[in-house]
Design goal:
The complex is a heterodimer of chains A (about 110) and B (about 100). Chain A has helices spanning about 1-25, 30-55, 60-90, 100-109. Chain A is mainly α. Chain A has one domain (about 1-109). In chain A, helix 1 runs antiparallel to helix 2. The relative contact order of chain A is 0.12. Chain B has about 100 residues and is mainly α. Chain B has a domain at about 25-90. Helix content of chain B is about 75%, strand content about 0%. Chain B is elongated, with a radius of gyration of 17 Å. The model of chain B has no long low-confidence stretch (mean pLDDT about 90). Classes of the chains: A mainly alpha (about 110), B mainly alpha (about 100). Chains A and B meet through helix 1, helix 2 and helix 3 of A and helix 1, helix 2 and helix 3 of B.
Amino acid sequence: MTILASIIVLAGALFSLIAALGIVRMPDLYCRMHAATKAGAFGLSLILIALCLIIPEPRVIIQSVLIIIFFYLTTPIAGQMIGRAATLRGIPFWKKIKSNPESLSRETE
Amino acid sequence: MFSEFQSIPTWVALVAHSILALSMALAGWRIWKGPSIPDRIVALDLLSALIMGQIVLSITHSGFISSLDVATAIAIIAFLATVAFARYLENKDAPL
């Protein structure tokens, strides 16, 4: 059980590192949001699952499951609200993107 | 404090803490450098998730299961802060 938990902890830390690398290397606000929200939430839930494997107490398991559910409910809402605010205020899209962002922002206003 | 459990090896905890610290440094670089305010808000959201990861990882090594309450509180506060920043940025007069 300890070996499995160690593997899951390292995997969660690596997913968090992937999220941080995405937030540094991505070219655009919207791409950065994509990298940060998904990979960060997945890395955190992996570390919480490893905690449930190491300490199988009812309180720890219930609270970890509640944290995972809350995080997966709130992260898309927060990302959507930031993306909506950035689109309304006219944060520029990436230059190589195909669709035309100006028509989109004119539509929403 | 929960004492009767078999912890993960120390070097695994050390490596995972180091990786999370490196991720926090990268997110802090984006907060410092970010060209616009929404970039900084996204990086702040990721930074709160990484802080929660550090807290949970320290529980797996030390057994202080009361720290899970701290992680829960940080999750709630980070969500409310992100929503408040987003609502503030929709204002036309807010600086970008």
